[in-house]
Amino acid sequence: MIAHSLPHPAFGPAQQLHGATYVTDVTFYSEQLREEQIVIDIALAHDALREALQPLNYQNLDELPQFKGKLTTTEYLAAYIHGQIKAAVADQFDGRIKVTLGESHEAWASYEA
């Protein structure tokens, strides 16, 4: 759960401060399984996601320094969270990561790299 504004005419009423609740899915892709027959340690993946989301939960993103001057769209936030997770698992995972944020059953955005 976050609050933010999107101060650009393209966003109509969402230019004003409003809240959003996201469902966050992260998928880890690898060309091969590790020695343990896994793509990534699920505890590592879980911890990385929790650590990426915790500083954002119940925050007004407009007030956080890392988002100053940014349009915190769903797509931008998916890319931001991707970067946080990638950094957290870099020493144990070298595959592709996909972060999907869902605001509703109709509105989803993903970032994959």
Which terms would index this structure?
6 strands, alpha+beta, 113 residues, 24% strand, Tetrahydropterin Synthase, Chain A
Helix content: 10-25%
**Overall spatial form:** elongated
CATH architecture: 2-Layer Sandwich
* Highest-level CATH class: Alpha Beta
- Topology order in helix (H) and strand (E) letters: EEEHEHEE
Tell me what you see in this structure.
It is a single chain. The chain has helices spanning 42-53, 74-89; strands at residues 2-4, 18-20, 23-29, 59-60, 96-102, 108-112. The protein has 113 residues and is α+β, with helices and mostly antiparallel strands. It has one domain (2-7, 21-106): 6-pyruvoyl tetrahydropterin synthase/QueD (Tetrahydropterin Synthase, Chain A, 2-Layer Sandwich). The longest helix has 16 residues, at 74-89.
Brief summary:
It contains 2 helices and 6 strands, in the order E-E-E-H-E-H-E-E.
Task: Give the secondary structure arrangement, pairings included.
Layout: E1 2-4, E2 18-20, E3 23-29, H1 42-53, E4 59-60, H2 74-89, E5 96-102, E6 108-112
Parallel strand pairs: 1-4
Antiparallel strand pairs: 1-2, 3-5, 5-6
